[in-house]
Design a protein that fits this description.
Dihydroxyacetone kinase, C-terminal domain; DhaK_L_YcgS; Serine Threonine Protein Phosphatase 5, Tetratricopeptide repeat; globular; DhaL_dom_sf; about 210 residues; 10 helices; binds adenosine-5'-diphosphate; binds magnesium ion; kinase; single chain; mainly alpha
Length: about 210
């Protein structure tokens, strides 16, 4: 995929994330303060506006994702603004200069993004955060770097969804969900759901 195709994929993803606001809000109402859907909607609306602006002309795919991360960070707020902003900023920086988006590039973005998210928030897999979906997708991506993107992305997105599903069984270590203790069991972490949805929609775009 070239930069223009990546741009179209992320515009589609942004529109779908905006539509997911009620689902994400409902999840955060169960385990948090109910604002996650609103935050994601605000962030991806800002991205939609950016991607529809002809003056936005990043020079390469790394620069593209870095700027998306910056946009999320400044527009979203909350824990997830810093976390998802960091994912795309650090992920984008790790692929600076790249002009072709393939499985290897996606693996770098997810794995470097995961490391940066860990540095920022210290959440490990099993702590009931978006890291459970991110780590699962990054691990699968690193096993599929020589596959075609169209074959790898469904599996990467599937792993993220499985990682998000697993958060239902977890007790939280961070944020408001921590205060719920065992009452959080049975509920998916909203940030993990968002992470899984982002990859799901990227995949939906490239399969059509
Ligand atoms: P807030 O908690 O400030 O209301 P949101 O509701 O938008 O922010 O986002 C909550 C999500 O942020 C959680 O579901 C979780 O996935 C993610 N999150 C919170 N803290 C961390 C952390 N330290 N590391 C990674 N992700 C985190
Ligand atoms: Mg919240
Ligand atoms: Mg909040």
């Amino acid at each position: 995929m070239n930069l223009l195709q990546v741009r179209k994929m992320m515009l589609f993803t942004a529109q779908k994330m905006i539509e997911s606001e009620p689902t994400l809000t409902a999840l955060d109402q169960l385990v948090g303060d109910g604002d996650h859907g609103i935050g994601m909607k605000r962030g991806f609306t800002a991205i939609m506006v950016l991607l529809q602006d002809e003056k936005f002309q990043p020079t390469n795919i790394g620069d593209f994702f870095t700027q998306i991360g910056t946009k999320l960070m400044i527009s979203m707020g909350g824990a997830s603004g810093a976390i998802f902003g960091t994912l795309f900023r650090a992920g984008g920086k790790s692929i600076t200069g790249v002009t072709e988006f393939d499985s290897d590039v996606l693996s770098k973005l997810l794995n470097e993004g995961w490391q940066a998210v860990y540095q920022r928030g210290k959440a490990k897999p099993g702590d009931k955060t978006m890291v459970d979906a991110l780590a699962a997708s990054a691990t699968t991506a690193s096993q599929l770097t020589s596959s075609k993107l169209i074959d790898a992305l469904p599996k990467i997105a599937q792993s993220a969804m499985e990682g998000a599903e697993k958060t239902k069984q977890m007790i939280a270590v961070f944020g408001r969900t921590k205060n719920l203790g065992e009452r959080a069991i049975g509920h998916m972490d909203p940030g993990a759901a968002s992470m899984a949805y982002i990859l799901k929609y990227m995949n939906e775009y490239i399969q059509t």
